[in-house]
Amino acid sequence: MLSEIINANIEVHTKMANAYNDEPHFKIENQEKVKKRLQKLQQECNAKNILDIGCGTGFMLNLANDSFDNIYGIDTTQAMLDKVDISSGKIKLYNAIAEKLPFEDNKFDMLTSYAFIHHLEDYSIVLKEALRVLKDDGLYYIDLDPNKYFWEGMNKLEETKNDEEYSDILNKEINAVLHTDEQVMKDFGIEPDVFNNAEYTKSILGGIDPEEFSNLALELGYKEARYEYDWFLGQGTIMHQHSFDEADKIDKYLKSILPLSRHLYKYVTIVLKK
Length: 274
Description:
Blueprint: H1 4-16, H2 28-45, E1 49-53, H3 59-64, E2 70-75, H4 78-81, E3 91-95, E4 108-114, H5 123-133, E5 134-146, H6 148-159, H7 168-178, H8 180-188, H9 192-198, H10 200-204, H11 210-220, E6 224-232, H12 235-241, H13 244-256, E7 265-273
Parallel strand pairs: 1-2, 1-4, 2-3, 4-5
Antiparallel strand pairs: 5-7, 6-7
């Protein structure tokens, strides 16, 4: 019997499957960014095969198509799997839960999860399963999951707003972080409680502390864990209204003053090594 959280994910992503490829992370500049990371990590561990856990409509599978010999994707929502382009003949899809991967031990050179971990109720279970199916020295690349410090900052701004006027960029992010459930209700008819359960680690737990996440991974048996913050507040706006170079300069500066600036980054990227 599936849990309430898994059932919420199936309901939400079944209703949103047709619109999912319109999500911001499908923009070409982000695809190029993620593909470069993926290829760099592949070279690091000399990976030939890859499993994308929580593959959705195939965002990461598509990016892996040129670089890997064998590509596997797993998701609990059949409506999302039905959107995956499998015409290359390399991709094999499985409808199953991430908490119980249908694969033998030590099968994969590399694992990925993109915008997925925050959908879980207890990500430690999936980290254990990932460790089991990953080969020694293999890598688990996790990306676009919510940075707890950013979520905390947005909540504090909402709580203390009163009559203070915020910029359009800031108001947009406050709405995206704290009121997406309201918009999803209007657009897809999904009840807010169901949507928030489907994004449990983000909406209920308030995001991921990358240091805590990394320490947990080491306790579970990974021999290395590293992370970085990604997508600072307003980065996309600067890219498109000014230039990619300007955005890159700001990003480098903000990263030079970490951890002071960590609350300005919306997402975290984490790489685990077995």
